[in-house]
Amino acid sequence: KALAGYVGVDVAHIVAGAGSDELIDLILRLFLEPGDGVINCVPTFGMYPFCTEICSGKVIDVPRDKSYAIDIAGIKEAVGEKNEKTKIIFIASPNNPTGNTTPQRDILELVNLGKVVVIDEAYYEFSGTTIAPLVSKYENLIVLRSFSKWAGLAGLRIGYGIFPTLIAEQLLKIKQPYNINLAAQVALQESLNDIEYLQDTVQKIISERERLFQRLGELKFLKPFPSQANFILCAVVKGNARLIYEGLQKKGIFLRYFDTPLLRNSLRISMGKPEHTDALIEALKEMC
After folding, report:
1. Which among 140, 133, 131, 130 is positioned nearest to 165, based on CA atoms?
2. Residue ranges of the chain with pLDDT lower than 50?
3. How far apart are CA 212 and CA 130, in angstroms?
4. What's the fold here for domain 2-193?
5. Does the domain at residues 196-287 carry the CATH identifier 3.20.20.70?
6. Complete DSSP assignment for 169-201
7. Distance separating alpha carbons of residues 232 and 160, to the nearest angstrom
């Protein structure tokens, strides 16, 4: 009921889980037969392919474009090639690790393909952009959320989904009955009771994100990408991202380093306090 009140939907649409990772797994268990396809818009969150393979599904990677927007035409082509065997489309919005959101018009275009479309809004509070109010209007649209990011409850494992009521009913049949621990339930309730404090903290993070983006843009060896999450992805356009990553580690500054086909020579920087931003920028200037 607390979650339904926060989201603004009927409680029949809500299913909670031990982190949204558990809900990803349950959705796949509910819909997949061995060999069924799952559209994965890379680069994106690694749990989609991980859970798909565990559930004997087939991961169908559809690369994003150079600005990391999803490729609608590519998704339609992938769905068309294996129409009956493609069951689910996962879209993280804001996307992890690129930070960009997917416009509502693109999401609805995918929903109209008739497949189950899962919009992972784990970073919703940092973007303010959501598709949740439309879930009740479509039988194949799901939204996932988390308390790990904006509320800082990652270690307690508490997430939830907004589902069409029929899907919610089926998920409750296969979900373990005691999957959420008491500490997580209490923490969730207290987070919502103190929501003004949390929302103020989110606004501070957003303000610092914009300041960090500007400061990173002043460094000629980095190309920061606009973000609607609590991190910023940077391409290292001059120099070696791994050496920067390792050098910052020695200074006690920890980032994420990527060197995959679609994220070559890249770093992801999570937001901190203003003094953390200043320390990072000074360290980067000293190194490069």
Report:
1. 140
2. none
3. 24
4. Aspartate Aminotransferase; domain 2 (3.40.640)
5. no
6. HHHHHHS-TT-S-HHHHHHHHHHHHTHHHHHHH
7. 25
